[in-house]
Every structure is written in C-alpha cells, then in structure tokens.
Specification:
By secondary structure, the protein is α/β, with parallel strands linked by helices. It has one domain: 3-Layer(aba) Sandwich (Arginase, Chain A), CATH 3.40.800. The protein has ten helices and eight strands. The chain has an eight-stranded parallel sheet with strand order 2-1-3-8-7-4-5-6, sandwiched between helices. It is globular, with a radius of gyration of 18 Å. 52% of the residues are buried. The structure holds manganese (II) ion.
C-alpha cells in the first residue's frame, strides 16, 4: 500500500506485484522476500508454483498494520522483494540445491530470508542455505502434518518427507510443531520418541487454548538463540485456507494462529517461510490473503521485538 513520495516516477510507476507493494532501496531493509515456486512432488493438488505471485498480489491489497504487533507497519519493518528463484519444474533435488544457494547468500549478508513457497520441500533448501551460512536455528513449524516419512511415492526429497530430511541433514537443536493432526504410525513414533522433537497437536491447542499453546512453544524454544519459522498454510482449518495442497480438517482458526504467533515470535527469528498455498484450488483468494496477513504479522512481531530489545540498555 506504499509508494515513496520522492517524485512522480515513484508515485505513479508500479513494479510488481511486490510483497506488500514496497518498492524501496535494499540497503534500507533487513528482510529479503524470495519466491520459491516449486510444486514438483505435490501428491494431491498441484499449483503451489503460482503461490508467490498470488501471495504478493494479496499482500499489496491488505492494510499494512499488524494485528497484535502494534506500533509498526510493514513499510517501516524494512522488507525488500528479491523476486523469484528460477527453479526446474519436476526436479525437487535440484530445486532444493538452488534455494539453498540463494538463501545462503542472503543469510551471509546478515539479512533475514522470507521464503514464499512453493510446496513444503522448499523449507529443506532454506535451512540448508542457512546452515551453509553458519546459521543453525531451532525450528518452529505450524503444520497439519508431521512430514516425517522416510520416502513418499518413491521420493526421498518430498513435501511429505521434508522434516525427516531436515532432522538428518541440518540437525536443528530443537524442532517444535504446532497443529499436527495427520500422520502415519511411523511418523507418530518418530515424533514422540526423538529427543529435540516436540509436538503440540491440534487437539491440544483446542484443549489448552492458543495462549497456553503459544507459551508452551515459547518454553520449548527458550534455550534457542535463533529460531526459524515455517508456516504450512494447511495448519489452518480448510474453512480458512481451502487453497492448499493437502487439506486436513479440522484445523486451527485464524485468530488462534495469530494468538499463538503473538506468544512465540520474537527477535530471535532468522528465517521465515510460508508454504503450500495452491491458488488454483483457492476460493476468492482467501488462502493467499490469509498467507499474506500471517506472514506480515510474523515479520512485524519479530521486528518490533528486535527494536524493543535494541532500545533496552544492556
Ligand atoms: Mn502440511
């Protein structure tokens, strides 16, 4: 919703869609939005490759304030849209390699990568990129699924195996899930039997409420100096997010997710992704709009926490 008022070219020119419509100088910003239009292994509904454009378009048409994150707008937070990564359609392994390369370069500059998926497989690339830049964060995943299969439909690198590969290759200090409700027996066993993996299931959020679920996640991440946040849009109930690759009712409500994020997102965020939006199965772009608003809220919560902290005398 923002144009700099430096001159007529800035006032009347449009370039985009750009995330939140922000056309600014890169050196003034900290967050790098980068599209990863991958849908190589989508097993049910395909079309996640169209999500980056759709999320950007939605983000240009929502208001720029936060919901819980007050006193800062998305223009003030410092976001630069880097464009999309050129990915080979059908080759998830090569796509992950390219995403890791680009994200690694962005992280090496001290910037915070914000990846617009794409299927959930892009998270593996993002975390390998961060690891390559010497950043090995704890991970918070909001997802209906555990994504801990060893292989799926013969593929080892897939949206259904992504967290298993991340555990094996990236070794995050802690992996915390919020919202799972769909998995097979082996995944369930792995999630409960592995130290450093913690799950707050969907029905637990229902039982204890979003404030307690969020503070439980915050406690589980309390030993972490850096946190990566991955949001699979299928964590939401399909009523809120119908346009996803693999919908799983019943899921979380929009206000529950925002309340959880308020409890858990802070200055420690070193990377963010939002994945699995599938515009071709969306209704009235509601999933893209919710994805844009969710991502904006995460950035605003992280950045306002960072600024509050840097103002405090140490
Ligand atoms: Mn999922």
């Amino acid at each position: 919703m923002y144009r700099s008022l430096a001159g007529l070219i800035d006032l009347y020119r449009t370039r985009g869609p750009l995330f939140a419509g922000i056309d600014t100088r890169r050196e003034r910003t900290r967050y790098s939005v980068i599209g990863a239009p991958l849908d190589a292994t989508a097993s049910y509904r395909k079309g996640q490759r169209w999500a980056p454009r759709s999320i950007r378009e939605a983000s240009e048409n929502i208001e720029s304030n936060g919901y819980y994150a007050r006193g800062i707008t998305i223009e003030e937070a410092g976001v630069y849209d880097e464009g999309d990564i050129a990915l080979p359609h059908g080759d998830a392994v090569e796509a992950v390699r390219r995403i890791a390369g680009v994200v690694g370069e962005i992280a090496s500059e001290g910037r915070i990568p914000v990846v617009l998926g794409g299927e959930h497989t892009v998270t593996l690339g993002a975390l390998e990129g961060l690891a390559g830049a010497g950043v090995r964060p704890c991970i918070l995943v909001l997802d209906a699924h555990l994504d801990l299969r060893n292989e799926y439909l013969g593929e080892e690198v897939s949206h259904a195996t992504v967290m298993r590969r991340i555990l094996e290759r990236v070794h995050p200090p802690v992996l915390v899930y919020i919202g799972p409700r769909a998995y097979d027996r082996e995944e369930e066993g792995l999630a409960s039997g592995r130290s450093g993996v913690e799950v707050i299931y969907s029905w637990e959020v229902e039982r204890i409420g979003p404030v307690n679920a969020g503070s439980r996640a915050r406690n589980l991440l309390s030993g972490c100096s850096r946190v990566y946040i991955s949001i699979d849009m299928d964590v939401y109930d399909p009523a809120y997010a119908p346009g996803v690759g693999t919908p799983e009712p019943p899921g979380l409500r929009a206000r529950e997710v925002f309340r959880i994020l308020r409890e858990v997102v802070d200055y420690r965020v070193v990377g963010i992704d939002i994945v699995e939006v599938t515009p071709s199965y969306d209704c009235g772009s509601v999933t893209s709009v919710l994805a844009a608003k969710t991502l904006q809220e995460v950035i605003l919560l992280a950045e306002s926490s960072r600024r509050t902290r840097s103002r405090k005398p140490s």
